[in-house]
Amino acid sequence: MDSTPGRTGLWLVGARGSVGTTTALGALAVAAGVAPATGLVTELPEFPGDGLPRWDDLVIGGHDVVPTPLPKKAEALAEAGVVPRTLVTALATELAGLDGRIRQVDEDVFHGPQAPVAERIAVDLGEFAERHGCARVVVINVSSTESPFRPGPEHRDPESLERALRGPRPVLPRSSLYAYAALRAGCPFVDFTPGAGVRLPALARLAERAGLPWAGSDGKTGETLLRSALAPMFTARALHVRSWAGVNLLGGGDGATLADQAAASSKVASKERSLDGALGYRVDAPLHIDHVPALGEWKTAWDHVRFDGFLGTAMTLQVTWQGCDSALAAPLVLDLARLVARAHEAGERGPLRALAFFFKDPVDCAEHGLAAQYDALLAWARRLRDPAC
Ligand SMILES: NC(=O)c1ccc[n+]([C@@H]2O[C@H](COP(=O)([O-])OP(=O)(O)OC[C@H]3O[C@@H](n4cnc5c(N)ncnc54)[C@H](O)[C@@H]3O)[C@@H](O)[C@H]2O)c1
Q: pLDDT under 50 in the chain at which residues?
């Protein structure tokens, strides 16, 4: 038992996936001082460390449905060039130790009654917090993208939900089932996927009652990040965007998941909302997502923007983004863990709108421009440090 008091737990749902593994390896490497802080927003000088959990106070655990040990997944990521092999070798013992804190969940349990599953997940969280002396545990969902979910009457309030959960059939999508269990265990919840998470009225109310902060959804790491930086430029220069077409070629596990039309439609919806929000008006924005296994962990996004200038002169911007998704996502997961832990400690509750900067589809936030979101984040972080600000 590791009983260092006041540690911060980070519980990853989907811990053995590409993002989960890169996050875990990254946290170990930064804590050991063997990796630079590149990509970590909370390591910028604008975020003086005071109040944020220290890297060596962060303890990671998680759930997954696959048995692949973390060191093996990390080796596969090194083979693919996502993470340095030297780090995987140097931190092999730590990775194996972390793997021992991942609980495997049987895929079948998600097809039956959900109350016992939620109970099991909440117990896992409680045991983890106790064993590692965690003052709090932030649960972050980085599991496979799920299909869009349409809520019914049973999702309206906590009482109806609790009643429905006692029935024999699944009531919640998986992201929301984990969110429900996290709230029951007193843990803040972050959805890094486009899943429903806490965004069902019954769960949002449960979070409010429990006094817990939450955030989401769908990490903004690539094409949408670029769009949220570029779209305000067109608006500020009074240039009229006529169409903004996008083609996404994805490799990796998420690419395979998004080969499924239903799962892809939740991604497409969150990208569309983000573009309209950043431009301030609706634009013709056809978006295409293809799975190209040969790309491995890399992703190519090609954006083609047709816009009008003075006197209606037509012009075009084309931009190609070639990113390694997991390397872009993992530092954001770590930033979110630190910021949400701090918010929880400061007594913040409900949706954390100031974290919109990190998400494609930010909860309760109409601002989609990257610079404005960053300003809001900095102002909020300053208030957390000094409530008089
Ligand atoms: N990589 C990025 O830049 C990025 C950006 C935004 C959002 N995301 C989201 O992050 C998520 C993870 O992406 P990835 O590339 O790591 O995908 P991945 O397929 O490599 O990993 C997903 C992991 O979730 C696990 N999983 C599936 N169902 C589960 C369940 N019910 N309980 C626990 N674990 C479960 C899988 O076994 C797998 O290990 C996706 O939903 C993706 O949409 C990623």
A: 1-4
